[in-house]
Hints:
With 282 residues, the protein is α/β, with parallel strands linked by helices. It has a domain at 10-123 and 173-180 and 258-278. Helix content is 39%, strand content 19%. It has a nine-stranded mixed β-sheet, with helices on both faces. A two-stranded antiparallel ribbon has the order 5-11. A hairpin with a 2-residue loop joins strand 7 and strand 8 (164-168). The radius of gyration is 18 Å and the shape is globular. The N and C termini lie far apart (58 Å). The mean pLDDT is 95.
Amino acid sequence: MNPVSPTHELAVCYRIYPGLSGQPGFGLTDKLTMVRLNLLSFQAALGPVRARLWVILDQCPPAYRELVTSLFGGPDLELIELNPKAGNEGTFLRQLEILCGQAAADLVYFAEDDYLYWPDGLAEAVRFMQQHPEVDFTTPADHADFDTKYIHRFTGEEYQEGSRHWRTVASTCLTFMARKAALVETRAVFASYARKNSDLGLWLALTQRRVNPWCALRSAADGLFFPASIALAWRHAWRQILFGRRRLLCVPRPALATHLESKDIAPRVDWAGCVHRYLPVK
Length: 282
């Protein structure tokens, strides 16, 4: 039996929750407004990319369904409404299940509701992955930690694509692009997030960077979260560390997206101007 050919360039699974967390930047005080900004910028970031979209609404009021369908309604959208809520780990596992099981695209994207995207940013990321088959994962969001934290200070692979400089990093958060094949092969590592592994821990196991005991001692100067995550990586994914293939995770500069948490805004990009593009000042 012949395998089904992909019908799209990208399969995306979103998770949206109506509560605010942390301290959002750019004066955002309402979650529905943040989600509108997120989705409008995501739509512009796709550019010409044809995407199949699943959206998980985790105990969201009707206004969220109306917003999503007004922007993406059509045959390429599937809404999944959860009530009672599944929470952070539960919705991530649902994303993992959907994106590993779908046959629409060979590239997949895990999306969260608190990011801001640069126009055509995801289209750039798709082109980068198409041009560099050796890369397993990308994150569109830059972060100051990539310059300041010990776990990221190593010499790795580097790529120049136009004005964008891409390089390998040790970890990212849970908004990322992946090859479906790589995701399926490493599914058990990602699933360990629901067993109290940290996002840093699972990425360190996959990239096999800064994961030895000496690195745990060195990284303690950056905060206890770092050595604790190295310990979690070994506890939950020691087989991947010892016997698995090192996976390449790349990040672009300037960034193609930013987390909307005020302390995590990606440097060197006019994100304020980007916000005003989608939420003009009245």
